[in-house]
């Protein structure tokens, strides 16, 4: 059993997820291990298809039935993988909750927004009366800056930003230990997005929330996260605290991501950085390091052997031969 | 000229390619794509082919003439008809009717009104035919003595008034004890093993199986004719209405919508009750019901195809309206029309059966399922099989067309992606 | 306009429709109000067209009511008299206008046979029977269909799902009168559990005081338990045969709707909040899927009426459907025309009502 350090909320241990498609088995997550500590915001970054959404869903065990999952999810002393369906259901919403990407489609169009919260409360705390639940919902709305009169409105009557606040309210309804925000701001325009980020910062400080922030927007992570995990092709690429990653990105992919952020001070001669290549095929992933076809620093060993995810600096982990000792047989001959 | 026309073919790539792949290959490739629906379509297709063969060659399958009285009335499926046996004085040496053939007339006792009379007549005719062919020189001549009950007939036999008595074995057996000098023959007077009817007979002595096989022809004839008529009127109207909208088209659409919402059967009842009985009138009535369906669907599709980009592109290149209709709109409309047609035939058969059941439409002696059901209803207590089998036939045939329509609909317009 | 029960029911239902319209109007958004106005206005030309079609079908198409009624026996005087009585000697247009105005007043003329009573009266007597048949049948079809469809959607791709899908296609392929006959054979003749035909046991029927003429209701009101029991027993088979046929369509529609709903994001989100699976499927998914069912009820109403005609014939159920069939046999064109007109009107009204209710229920349209 993994060490349960004080302050660790969730330990993911050797998690692998595959699912079957018509064309074959897709390896969506390959051997991911990480810890989420109490009170921190862990940013999970990567491009579409890198497995970050799958990871979020895996933590709630909400993957489609055609998937195969290996590994352990240690949460508060229990392995979530061993729980029965009804036990897992009791955890969802109460101990771990999720904020989804598109609040328009994630809310039931024929259910009032207040009732979403009331239903959640009453499902997990059946003794609570409807009035009490409604009062708690009202308090949440107050805190999130939504007028209480909106409790009886339907989702389509609210603006996008308000809907997202409702989603956050639902996630906070039972004071969950871990909140997973899956692309929570992607569907919002930048101004509203900024407001939501401010709100999340306040809530984090006020309620000492633990958040797993899944996004492809690295700028967002910079604002909010304490640590960053960069994922590529279902594997972990780089993991460290925010400052270290931004100051000294070790993995070529992370460097590419940071370079790709358009710089507002771009002058006429500089061009937008474009990373070469496309996302890899997860049914037949490239051998060795999965990033090697796109990597500007690729070496012979990269296409043959997978590197290990290990600390190149203190508390700064990387999955790259550039920062790991290459085995003797692959070392390049240094030509004179 | 030719280059201009070719340039105007703006149809999407897949449509042009589909033209080039052979029909058989498309058919076989479809199996991998469509799974269960492909099987459904194929199975219902095979079923329908069988049904078609029933309709086109009913004589091959039906053992009897559907309008002929071929057996006793109300015989249960598989039940043997009652046998008629000979009763003679013991020691007379007469074992069967043939033994009675000779120079003189034989007096024979039967019960008044008994079906034995007709059975006897048949047997007499048959035996005399055989004797003539064998040049035997003798013939069977019978003179019927009629008694009121079988008991009196047996008494008459014992008294020598008649040479032989013919009657139901089930009636004679229990009475024989009282007449020690009389003996009952082993075989029935027909001499051969008596036949039973697979599905029984109705109250007119007609074979149920033959009737329902012949009924297939009527049902399909009416169903198809009605569907074809409805198609011939509804599709062109729908195309025109979809293409050229205007005040006339709006009124027409309103009329069609009103007709569509009205209960079909009741409209058909109204039309047939006024037109009178007859197959043609039934076809017209049912066709009228379905014209609005074709109209609506075709019009709707025409309108949506007309708004597609590639049609606009063609128009901007100067394609004529007629060629747009035939090249672009028509091919897109065909799949839906095929599906509707299939469902139409199924529905037409049901409607026709309903009309016949009520007594409207077809002349009462037609071997039609609906009529059989109406006749069978009167004898429901006594003869359950008169109602069960014609109805079962309706279900099977209708199911065949419905399934075909359903699976074709899934194949041609896939609705859901099954994840 | 006389106050016959038929008139009463028509006005009553129009009143209900009016109330629904007003309610929806008040509580609805601008979009809904516009829709209500348009849809109601649309009903008028539709009814007009239907009634016109009926008129032309009954008069223009070859077939002479007088000859059919009197037969070859009728001498020229009798013919003349009858033609004048029926107003058939006047120009077609005049007849048409008269007909329209008569229908507006719900004066459906007098029947040609059996004492020549006003058709409206005869229909009023038979309307409750038809209602007593179609309402439970519809409720059964919707209830059973929606639940079974949801169940099938929940157990997708399993044996039960395929079985139910096959059932729904088969249900539509069975002639309703055949199903009725088969049920009669099995449950009445073979098992003897239920009566074969009729609405109530004749002897018990005489003890029942009629108020609404809906026997089950009357028995409840007057506390006549043997009558209630008898009426219910007689109701089972007809309701079952008519209801089962309609179940198929509702099953199919709800199955598809629930399947489509179950893959939507909000269902995933609900599961992520720990909501129980049964609640997710049978409350959230089903409710979302219910709304299109309302429209389907409107569409299926015509099928319901057609089925009622056949079912009443099968079970000797003295409703408007049996009236239609009987009077056709009697060549009573006035009566036939009257029944068909009433059917057309009811279809138009039900269709209007379901469209309005649908628009009202869907909150996306309502606000």
Tell me what the structure shows.
- The complex is a heterotrimer of chains A (336), B (419) and C (367).
- With 336 residues, chain A is an alpha/beta fold.
- Helices cover 29% and strands 24% of the residues of chain A.
- Chain A has helices spanning 52-59, 85-91, 103-106, 113-124, 130-144, 160-172, 190-207, 218-224, 242-247, 252-260, and strands spanning 8-21, 24-37, 41-45, 67-75, 78-79, 96-99, 178-182, 210-215, 227-232, 235-241, 309-313, 316-319.
- An eight-stranded mixed beta sheet of chain A has the order 6-7-8-3-9-10-12-11, with helices on both faces.
- In chain A, α4 (113-124) packs across α5 (130-144), α5 (130-144) packs across α6 and α6 (160-172) packs parallel to α7.
- The model of chain A is unreliable at 1-5 (pLDDT under 50).
- A five-stranded mixed beta sheet of chain B has the order 3-2-4-1-5, sandwiched between helices.
- In chain B, α4 (36-56) crosses α9 (208-243), α10 packs across α12 and α15 packs antiparallel against α16.
- Chain B is elongated.
- Residues 1-7 of chain B have low confidence and may be disordered.
- Chain C has two domains: 1-113 and 330-367, no CATH class; 125-329, MetI-like fold (Orthogonal Bundle).
- In chain C, 79% of the residues lie in helices and 0% in strands.
- Chain C has helices at 5-27, 30-59, 65-70, 76-86, 92-104, 119-154, 159-173, 176-190, 202-206, 215-222, 225-262, 265-272, 277-315, 320-329, 333-361, 363-366.
- In chain C, α8 packs across α13.
- Chain C is globular and about 85 Å long.
- Classes of the chains: A alpha/beta (336), B alpha/beta (419), C mainly alpha (367).
- At the B-C interface, α10, α11, α14, α15 and α16 of B face α2, α7, α8, α11 and α13 of C.
């Amino acid at each position: 059993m993994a060490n349960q350090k004080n302050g660790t909320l969730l330990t993911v241990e050797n998690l692998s997820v595959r699912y079957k498609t018509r064309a074959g088995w897709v390896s969506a997550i390959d051997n991911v291990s990480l810890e989420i500590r109490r009170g921190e915001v862990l940013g999970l970054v990567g491009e579409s298809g890198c497995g970050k959404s799958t990871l979020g869903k895996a933590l709630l065990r909400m993957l489609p039935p055609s998937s195969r999952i290996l590994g352990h999810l240690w949460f508060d002393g229990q392995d979530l993988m061993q729980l029965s369906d009804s036990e897992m259901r009791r955890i969802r919403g109460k101990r771990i909750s999720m904020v989804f990407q598109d609040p328009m489609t994630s809310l039931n169009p024929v259910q009032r927004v207040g009732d979403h919260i009331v239903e959640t409360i009453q499902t997990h705390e059946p003794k609570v009366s409807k009035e009490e639940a409604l009062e708690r919902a009202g308090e949440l709305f107050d805190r999130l800056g939504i007028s209480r009169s909106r409790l009886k409105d339907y989702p389509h009557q609210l603006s996008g930003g308000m809907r997202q606040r409702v989603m956050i309210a639902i996630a906070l309804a039972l004071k969950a230990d871990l909140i997973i925000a899956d692309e929570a701001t992607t569907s919002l325009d930048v101004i509203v997005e900024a407001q939501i980020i401010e709100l999340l910062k306040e809530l984090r400080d006020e309620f000492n929330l633990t958040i797993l922030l899944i996004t492809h927007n690295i700028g967002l992570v910079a604002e909010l996260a304490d640590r960053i995990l960069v994922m590529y092709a279902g594997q972990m690429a780089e993991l460290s605290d925010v400052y270290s990653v931004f100051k000294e990105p070790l993995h070529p992919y992370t460097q590419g991501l940071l370079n790709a952020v358009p710089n507002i001070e771009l002058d006429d001669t500089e061009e937008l950085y474009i990373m070469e290549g496309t996302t890899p095929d997860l049914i037949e992933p490239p051998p060795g390091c999965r990033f090697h076809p796109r990597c500007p620093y690729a070496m012979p060993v990269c296409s043959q052997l997978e590197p290990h995810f290990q600390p190149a600096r203190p508390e700064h982990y990387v999955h790259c031969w550039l920062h790991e000792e290459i085995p003797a047989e692959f070392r390049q001959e240094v030509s004179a | 000229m030719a280059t201009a026309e070719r340039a105007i073919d703006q149809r999407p790539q897949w449509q042009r390619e589909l033209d080039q792949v052979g029909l058989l290959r498309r058919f076989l490739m479809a199996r991998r794509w469509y799974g269960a629906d492909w099987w459904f379509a194929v199975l219902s297709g095979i079923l329908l082919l069988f049904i078609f063969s029933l309709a086109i060659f009913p004589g091959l399958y039906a053992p009897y003439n559907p309008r002929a009285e071929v057996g006793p009335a109300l015989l249960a499926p598989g039940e043997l008809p009652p046998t008629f046996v000979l009763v003679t004085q013991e020691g007379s040496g007469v074992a069967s009717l043939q033994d009675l053939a000779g120079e003189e007339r034989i007096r024979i006792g039967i019960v008044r009104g008994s079906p034995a009379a007709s059975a006897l007549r048949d047997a007499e005719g048959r035996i005399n035919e055989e004797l003539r062919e064998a040049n035997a020189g003798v013939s069977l001549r019978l003179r019927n003595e009629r008694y009121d009950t079988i008991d009196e007939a047996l008494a008459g036999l014992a008294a020598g008034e008649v040479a032989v008595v013919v009657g139901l074995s089930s009636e004679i057996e229990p009475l024989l004890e009282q007449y020690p000098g009389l003996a009952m023959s082993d075989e029935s007077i027909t001499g051969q093993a008596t036949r039973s009817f697979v599905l029984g007979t109705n109250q007119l002595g007609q074979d149920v199986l033959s009737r329902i096989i012949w009924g297939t022809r009527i049902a399909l004839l009416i169903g198809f004719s009605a569907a074809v008529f409805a198609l011939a009127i509804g599709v062109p109207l729908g195309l025109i209405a979809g293409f050229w909208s205007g005040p006339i088209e709006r009124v027409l659409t309103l009329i069609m919508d009103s007709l569509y919402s009205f209960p079909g059967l009741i409209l058909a009842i109204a039309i047939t009750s006024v037109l009178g009985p007859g197959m043609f009138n039934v076809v017209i009535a049912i066709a009228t019901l379905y014209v609005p369906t074709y109209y609506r669907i075709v019009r709707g599709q025409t309108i949506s195809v007309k708004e597609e980009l590639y049609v606009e592109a063609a128009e901007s290149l100067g394609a004529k309206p007629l060629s747009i209709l035939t090249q672009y709109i028509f091919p897109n409309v065909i799949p839906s029309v095929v599906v509707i047609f299939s469902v139409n035939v199924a529905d037409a058969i049901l409607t026709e059966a309903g009309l016949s059941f009520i007594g409207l439409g077809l002349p009462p002696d037609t071997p039609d399922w609906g009529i059989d059901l109406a006749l069978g209803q009167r004898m429901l207590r006594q003869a359950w099989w008169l109602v069960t089998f014609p109805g079962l036939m309706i279900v099977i045939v209708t199911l065949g067309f419905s399934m075909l329509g359903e699976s074709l609909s899934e194949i041609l317009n896939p609705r859901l992606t099954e994840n | 306009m006389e106050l016959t029960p038929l008139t009463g029911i028509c006005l009553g239902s129009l009143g209900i429709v009016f109330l629904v319209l007003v309610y929806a109007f008040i509580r609805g958004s601008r979009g809904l109000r516009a829709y209500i106005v348009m849809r109601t206005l649309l009903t008028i030309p539709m009814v007009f067209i239907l009634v016109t079609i009926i008129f032309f079908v009954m008069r223009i198409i070859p077939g002479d009511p007088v000859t059919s009624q009197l037969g070859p026996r009728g001498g020229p005087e009798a013919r003349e008299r009858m033609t004048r009585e029926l107003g058939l000697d006047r120009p077609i247009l005049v007849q048409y206008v008269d007909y329209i105005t008569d229908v507006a007043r719900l004066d459906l003329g007098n029947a040609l046979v059996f004492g020549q009573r006003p058709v409206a009266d005869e229909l009023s007597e038979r309307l409750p029977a038809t209602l007593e048949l179609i309402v439970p049948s519809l409720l059964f079809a919707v209830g059973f269909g929606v639940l079974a469809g949801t169940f099938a959607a929940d157990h997708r791709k399993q044996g039960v799902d395929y079985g139910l899908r096959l059932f729904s296609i088969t249900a539509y392929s069975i002639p309703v009168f055949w199903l009725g006959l088969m049920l009669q054979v099995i449950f009445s003749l073979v098992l003897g559990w239920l009566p074969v035909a009729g609405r109530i046991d004749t002897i018990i029927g005489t003890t029942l005081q009629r108020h609404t003429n809906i026997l089950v209701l009357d028995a409840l009101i007057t506390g006549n338990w043997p009558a209630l029991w008898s009426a219910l027993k007689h109701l089972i088979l007809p309701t079952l045969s008519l209801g089962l046929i309609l179940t198929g369509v509702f099953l199919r529609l709800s199955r598809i709707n629930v399947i489509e709903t179950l893959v939507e994001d909000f269902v995933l989100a609900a599961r992520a909040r720990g909501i129980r699976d049964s609640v997710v499927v049978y409350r959230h998914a089903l409710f979302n899927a219910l709304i299109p069912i309302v429209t389907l009820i409107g569409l299926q109403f015509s099928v319901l009426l057609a089925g009622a005609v056949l079912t009443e014939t099968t079970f000797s159920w003295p409703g408007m459907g049996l009236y239609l069939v009987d009077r056709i046999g009697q060549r009573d064109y006035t009566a036939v025309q009257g029944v068909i007109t009433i059917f057309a009107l009811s279809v138009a009204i039900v269709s209007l009502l379901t469209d309005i209710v649908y628009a009202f229920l869907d909150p996306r349209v309502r606000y």
